[in-house]
Amino acid sequence: CPVVVIAHESHPGTAELVGGAVMRAALTTNMPEGVFSLLYGGGRTVGISVVQHPVIQAVGFTGSRSGGTALMAAAANREQPIPVYAEMSSVNPVVILPGALERGETALAEAFFGSLTLGVGQFCTNPGLLFLPEGKGFGFIERLRELVTAATPGTMLNAGICQAYADTVEAVASTEGVQTIARATAAAGQGAPAVFSVSLRRFLEADLLRGEMFGPGTLIVRGSLEEIEAAIPELEGQLTATVHGTAEELAAHASLVTALESRAGRLIFNSFPTGVEVCHSMVHGGPFPATSDGRSTSVGTMAIHRFTRAVAWQGFPDACLPAELQEGNSLGIRRLVDGEFV
Question: Which of 183, 190, 248, 283 has the fewest CB atoms nearer than 10 Å to its CB?
């Protein structure tokens, strides 16, 4: 199945290097000519045109929510609609329980800050929303304030992303009921960490506060544990959801974990979401708008199922079956035969 890749306009040179490596690998392994193509073109014009072309049978996309939904609409409006696996928007909520604070608020704040600012906050699993129990975590917030105030800003991927982050930060900062805990200073083209705080009641009232700050910014939401649990179903779909606490707290708040499970594709305990390992068990997906299809993943071995289609061969002579299905199994692959792996 040929693959067509559209290079991102922010790093055409990197795309050329990677594309060249893929094409050399295809030649080395005797893949058919044209099995891989790399296209260049700014904006959505090229992407929409490729999605609308009748030979294209499936689409994978990582980018903005508006870009992903535009591709979804183009694919759905074809004479023959095709699936779009778009990874788009996620704030990746983190819930901190009292037991995690008792283990050490300073260390927890430092680890959170490292996750928040990794890659200038441009990871799709960036922790942009933090739920903190009311009346607790003052040491955590103070250490986070110190780290943000002293932080060095970083250069973001492009001017558009940088401006969008700056605009969103200003909008959050000016929202009624929001307190600015700390903001670092940034020059043009740079993204600086920003941390805000708001009550859970106000968080639920203002739609803007539940959106994504794509960059090193996060919003701390204060409320009782009961209020926090009740608020989780109000969130949109997420790539990840994280809980920090003790094993005993997990058992005591099982319904909180169940609520988070309904909102995210990957649940994390006592760690942070920005580490995404390419492995068999990874799920890098989640309910809309984290992805367009919450049954899929874009990282890990399960990702290949996005681009497969099941076909049953009924009544065919063994010699006429594909090699993968013949009794002799000349390819030596692991197969499911009569319900058992052999």
Answer: 248
Nearest Cα to Cα of residue 36 among 25, 23, 24, 27: 23
Of 36-50, 181-195, 267-281, 299-313, minimum mean pLDDT range: 36-50
Complete DSSP assignment for 88-110: -----EEEE-HHHHHH-HHHHHH
Give the whole-angstrom CA distance, residue 334 versus residue 270. 36
Q: What is the pLDDT of residue 41?
A: 83
Please state, in angstroms and as integers, the Cα–Cα distance from residue 108 to each residue in 196, 241, 264, 342, following that order.
17, 17, 22, 47
Please name the fold of domain 93-269.
Aldehyde Dehydrogenase; Chain A, domain 2 (3.40.309)
pLDDT tens column, 137-147: 999 999 999 99
- Rounded Cα distance between 263 and 217, Å, is 21
pLDDT per residue as tens digits for the range 167-186: 999 999 999 999 999 999 99
Q: Where are the domains of the chain?
A: 3-88+294-307, 93-269, 315-342
The alpha helices in 8-86, defined as continuous H runs, are 12-28, 45-52, 65-76
Catalytic residue among 1, 9, 87, 176: 87
For residue 304, give the DSSP letter: G
CB atoms within 10 A of CB 330: 9
CATH topology identical between 3-88+294-307 and 93-269: no
87 among known catalytic residues: yes
Q: Which one of the listed residues 105, 124, 212, 229 is annotated catalytic?
A: 124
In the residue annotation, 212 being an active-site residue is answered as: no
| 3-88+294-307 fold | Aldehyde Dehydrogenase; Chain A, domain 1 (3.40.605)
Asked if the model's pLDDT at residue 188 lies above 90, the reply is: no
pLDDT value of residue 106: 97
CB atoms within 10 A of CB 331: 10
pTM metric for this prediction? 0.92
